[in-house]
Write a structure and sequence with these properties.
The complex is a heterodimer.
Chain A (H helix, E strand, L loop, with lengths): L9 H4 L3 H11 L4 E17 L2 E20 L7 E9 L3 H17 L33 H14 L2 E18 L4 E17 L5 E8 L7 H13 L4 E2 L4 E7 L1 H13 L3 H5 L23 E5 L33 E5 L2 E2 L6 H7 L10 E5 L6 H6 L3 E15 L4 E14 L2 E6 L1 E6 L1 H7 L2 E2 L3 E3 L12 E3 L2 E12 L3
Parallel strand pairs in A: 7-15, 8-13, 12-19
Antiparallel strand pairs in A: 1-2, 1-4, 2-3, 4-5, 5-6, 8-20, 9-10, 9-12, 10-11, 13-14, 14-15, 14-16, 16-20, 17-20, 18-19
Chain B lengths: L5 H4 L3 H14 L4 E17 L2 E19 L2 E7 L4 H19 L17 E4 L11 H15 L7 E17 L4 E18 L4 E5 L10 H4 L9 H17 L6 E7 L1 H13 L4 H4 L29 E4 L20 E6 L2 E2 L6 H6 L5 E2 L2 E2 L5 E2 L8 E2 L3 E4 L8 H6 L3 E13 L5 E13 L2 E6 L2 E6 H6 L1 E4 L6 E10 L4 E9 L2 E10 H4 L3
Parallel strand pairs in B: 4-6, 8-17
Antiparallel strand pairs in B: 1-2, 1-5, 2-3, 5-6, 6-7, 8-24, 9-10, 9-16, 10-11, 12-13, 14-15, 17-18, 18-19, 18-20, 20-24, 21-24, 22-23
Helix pairs in contact in B: 2-3
Classes of the chains: A alpha+beta, B alpha+beta.
Chain lengths: 477, 510
């Protein structure tokens, strides 16, 4: 698809994203075209055994061209073609446009066809892409080196990763869209083990710029957690009064969100399906006071305020590109109020258009205090660090399985009194929202399972669940 | 056998590589490699007879990796110009300088012969990306329409994932490799509902390192019997929807390769990656119970258990000629007669642990370095890890005949395993009750849960070569930043005694 000659003038090779958008829109011979240009830079450090292992700085420019061909005649319909590629020059984009136009002409009519969004312009569309580089770690890196020294001296082993990305997305179309969004995404995570590898602890979180991440504080936190393991208590499988920290709640809520497609529910194949037909929108599905929502303007969790869809599927439609996104309540006071919709599925289900938003907030009306308060109020129970390897077992109840990881602690008389073995759990996040007994206030969180690569913008409370199902013991340490 | 794609060989990778390596050498690095990749993806999806999506994606770019002052430095970009090659070499060295202060164990590579200018292309007849989209979409539309003729089928979906991967690798030692791989994963699923339940039944066809012929030919010619499976699935789903819920307890299991490949992947493949055993994945994918001090002593499984690592098997998804560190690929033992005897290695690990793959007095990588794109650094990734059949072993029917009370498990579905690869839980597409050596119908809501070494030591018999199938997946995840790899696992139908079966409705508290 690419025939670039290195003899080309460098200026042509490094066209601006806006130039690529405008050029692609102008070059398309289809009836309409949408162009998405994403300029992404990232920098990362990874470590294990108190030494750096891999690291790098990356730069990618991805261009997606979506072409639309309207069929004549009574049958009518609109055919689409979507082609994406790494492209930084107009000649590379020309090939993507040709391929997308040809794909649309060869396609059958799209079932999700609708009017394209028109005439929306971001005031900063002409601004350049915003990059990051290795210097984002200028303060963090020396401190990390010091943390390695401390850990080595004190008999601990550190493993971890930091990543910072800046992705600038430009969305343009023949219908007058010229939208831009800058998305900072970053996270830190550190696992610590005792020198004999018999205990493990973890800390992690999301950040937008690393000005709020302190490597020495990170090391102190995991050192403190390893200290909780002085007393070891082996417990059998069973149902336990369990405190799930915000990271674990984020893991489970992301699954509840991802499986909330309206079309699949409408067609009878999810926990959100009504029997014999329809969806459960309007039903109370959790305890009162439970609110699950997304909001592109949420503080520190800001995300794209418009739809960006490179391809169509059950929960996305290329025809919806540029559609404004706002706060969307998925569960309000325990009632299911919306599912993930395209405009096409909204018509199918006779519901409002509520597309996926790239953040998620769980807020409990009665939630107050911190996770420490939940611990203080627990007579005997378990405090988890995080969850891992979470997969759907049964879509009927959205039963998920997974494991505890990097520290399960025994709580007795409101205090942490020892380290417990790990467990495999089998639980449904929807059911947990019905059964929890206590909640902390909502705080920024970072999903251990999904935060690295898929979904890092969450705010969740800690939840205490009186009968969390630990199905079997895991020997992992 | 196809040749290298001329649209790839016309790209300026040799020039960019020469410029980048020359710059890295000028900056005084002790090692530098250059990797140029073009990976083409095409995905098609169909639901209820309608094409939902046909999209093409191309990932094109290059990377420079150096060892400088004992530390790795890596930089990648997408602008195909010599100035960018110089900039990336400079960036990689700059990153290595930052990293050097935090690198307490200097990076060293196991030696490898130089391959001056070699090419390798995977075995396939028809590049699926060269088949018109309309032709491929028509196949998927037909599949969903045929499935929906079944009385129990309310909805049906089908998909086709195709990949063409081209890589050029060059290093300061003089190795130059140019390679091409093709793989595809077709699949379908039928969905239905009863009065108060719903369920699905999916194809058990494995993804393969083959071309479009996989959909055109019969099994004897490298294809698959799509017609037979499309005919059977609606009835299998109808039976499943009416099946009784399993009684939780302990059962003997006969496991078909369409399910067992995934158990091998999770409990052997990942557990014998040396980077996991050394702790490199401790913050993400996890470590391994199979630590290096257990080499040659750990009774991983019963004495009939023989497992190989293999990056050379024809049509394997992890098969390639040379890995992403310029190492010629190999086949070796991981478990022999039930005992752990080997690991999967890259060049730093081959140097660090020479006893694992000694050659002429030094250690050697066994060729397991891989990066999923030019934008990612190569790490140790999984070979095709496979359980060997018994040359005189029984058929699947004979294995079932040995079971008084048990279950026969077919097809994969849900999977999960802990951070040290001890505790796992799997479901399947279908579980059949075995009573007195005979299949007596399906049960629903079953999952099997075990600890890795307990499970493999409970393996009483492996089937013969006729039961062996090469399964696999496109979506094995590992590393930070996250990378995805395709890998195959072959295995025969096998018999396990006394495995814990859960009832998932009980687990959900219903």
């Amino acid at each position: 698809m690419t025939t670039l000659d290195p003899a080309l003038d460098h200026a042509e090779v490094r066209a601006t994203p806006q130039t690529l958008v405008d050029h692609a829109v102008a070059m398309s011979t289809a009836d309409d075209a949408i162009v998405i240009v994403r300029d992404k830079t990232s920098a990362n450090l990874r470590w294990a055994n108190n030494t750096l292992t891999t690291n790098g700085v990356m730069h990618a420019i991805d261009v997606t061209v979506i072409s639309f061909i309207r069929l004549p005649g009574a049958e009518g319909g609109v055919c689409t073609g979507s082609v994406s590629g790494s492209a930084s020059s107009q000649s590379q984009v020309d090939e993507l446009v040709r391929a997308a136009d040809a794909a649309a002409r060869a396609a059958s009519p799209a079932e999700d066809a609708g009017e394209l969004i028109r005439d929306r312009v971001s005031p900063d569309f002409d601004d350049a892409a915003v990059p990051t580089d290795i210097h984002v770690y200028d303060a963090f890196a020396p401190a990390l080196g010091e943390a390695f020294g401390r850990s080595t001296a004190q008999g601990r082993v550190l493993y971890g990763f930091v990543n910072h990305e800046l992705a600038t997305t430009y969305l343009g179309s023949t219908t007058g869209l010229r939208l831009r969004h800058v998305q900072p995404t970053g996270h830190y995570a550190c696992t610590a083990k005792t020198a004999d590898l018999s205990q493990s602890a973890w800390v992690g979180g999301a950040t937008r710029d690393f000005t709020d991440v302190d490597a020495l504080a990170m090391e102190q936190t995991v050192a403190k957690r390893l200290g909780w393991g002085t007393r070891r208590v082996d417990l059998p499988a069973g149902r336990y009064d369990t405190i799930l920290p915000p990271t674990a709640v984020a893991d489970l809520m992301i699954d509840a969100y991802w499986y909330a497609g309206a079309r699949v529910a409408w067609e009878g194949q999810s926990v959100y399906s009504r029997r014999p037909t329809g969806t459960r929108i309007g039903e109370t599905i959790t305890a009162p006071g439970v609110n699950l929502y997304s909001d592109p303007t949420y503080h520190q969790l800001g995300c794209a305020p418009f739809v960006v869809a490179a391809a169509s599927g059950n929960e996305s439609s290329v025809f919806d590109n540029g559609l404004p996104l706002g706060r969307t309540d998925w569960i309000r006071d325990g009632e299911l109020t919306a599912l993930l919709q395209t405009r096409h599925s909204a018509v199918m289900t006779s519901q409002p258009v509520t597309p996926m938003v790239d953040n998620l907030v769980l807020d409990i009306d009665s939630g107050a205090g911190t996770i420490d308060d939940l611990v203080a109020g627990t007579e005997r129970g378990l405090l988890l660090t995080c969850l891992w390897y979470i997969r759907e077992v049964d879509p009927q109840s959205l039963l998920l399985t997974g494991l505890t990881r990097d520290g399960v602690y025994l709580v007795e008389g409101g205090e942490i009194t020892g380290l417990v073995n790990n467990f495999r759990f089998n639980e449904s996040p929807v059911d947990l929202l019905r059964r929890f007994s206590h909640a902390s206030a909502t705080m920024p969180s970072f999903s251990r399972e999904w935060g690295d690569d898929y979904f890092s913008r969450t705010a969740t409370p800690a939840l205490r669940v009186p009968d969390f199902n630990m199905s079997s013991v895991s020997q992992a340490m | 056998m196809s040749g290298l794609d001329p649209t790839f060989t016309s790209l300026p990778y040799r020039k960019l590589g020469d410029v980048a390596l020359a710059r890295a050498k000028e900056l005084g690095v002790s090692h530098a490699d250059f990797r140029f990749e073009r990976v083409r993806y095409q995905n098609l999806s169909v639901r209820d007879g309608v094409l939902q999506n046909a999209s093409d994606t191309e990932d094109l770019g290059f990377a420079v990796r150096v060892i400088h002052r004992g530390a790795w430095g890596f930089a990648s970009g997408v602008v195909l110009h010599p100035d960018e090659a110089v900039r990336l070499a400079d960036s990689a060295v700059a990153v290595a300088r930052v990293a050097a202060d935090m690198t307490s164990t200097p990076v060293e590579l196991a030696p490898e012969p130089t391959y001056a200018d070699v090419t390798w292309v995977s075995t396939y007849d028809i590049n699926p990306l060269e088949v018109p989209v309309a032709e491929k979409a028509a196949v998927l539309v037909d599949w969903t329409n045929r499935l929906r003729t079944g009385a129990a089928v309310d909805h049906a979906s089908a998909y086709l994932r195709q990949v063409q991967e081209n890589k050029y690798y060059a290093d300061l030692a003089g190795t130059r490799t140019t390679q091409q791989r093709v793989r595809l994963q077709p699949g379908f699923e039928a969905m239905g509902a009863g009065a108060d339940t719903f369920d699905s039944m999916a194809s058990i066809a494995p993804p393969v390192g083959r071309g479009w012929e996989y959909l055109l030919n019969g099994p004897e010619d490298g294809g698959y019997d799509w017609d037979q499976e499309l005919d059977e699935v609606p009835e299998l789903l109808a039976e499943k929807l009416k099946a009784p819920s399993v009684e939780a307890g302990t059962y003997d299991l006969v496991i078909h390769p369409s399910n067992l490949w995934l158990t091998i992947h999770e409990s052997i493949g990942h557990a014998t990656e040396l980077d996991r055993a050394l702790g490199y994945e401790a913050n993400y994918a996890g470590t391994s119970f199979a630590t290096i001090d257990l080499l040659n002593t750990l009774q991983y499984g019963s004495p009939i258990m023989n497992v190989t690592g293999d990056r050379t098997v024809e049509h394997g998804l992890a098969t390639v000629g040379y890995d992403d560190e310029g190492v010629q690929t190999q086949r070796w033992d991981i478990v022999r007669d039930g005992v752990l005897v080997g690991y999967q290695l890259d060049r730093p690990m081959g140097q660090m642990r020479p006893e694992l793959n000694p050659v002429d007095g030094h250690g050697r990588s066994n060729g397991c370095a891989y990066a999923d794109s030019s934008g990612h650094i190569p790490i140790q990734r999984m070979a095709n890890v496979s359980l060997q059949p018994d040359p005189q072993g029984p058929s699947t029917v004979e294995l079932i005949g040995r079971v008084e009370r048990g279950l026969y498990v077919v097809g994969d579905k849900s999977w999960s395993i802990d951070m040290q690869r001890f505790n796992f839980q799997f479901t399947g597409q279908r579980f059949y009750t075995i009573t007195d050596g005979e299949l007596v119908g399906q049960v629903r809501d079953a999952a099997y849960q075990a600890t890795t070494t307990d499970f493999w030591n409970s393996m009483e018999a492996v089937g013969g070569p006729d039961t062996w199938i090469l399964g696999g997946a496109f979506n094995c995840g590992k590393a930070q930043p996250g990378q995805v790899a395709a890998v195959s696992h072959g295995c025969p139908t096998s018999l396990f005694r006394g495995v814990r079966i859960l009832n998932t409705l009980d687990e959900a508290g219903h």
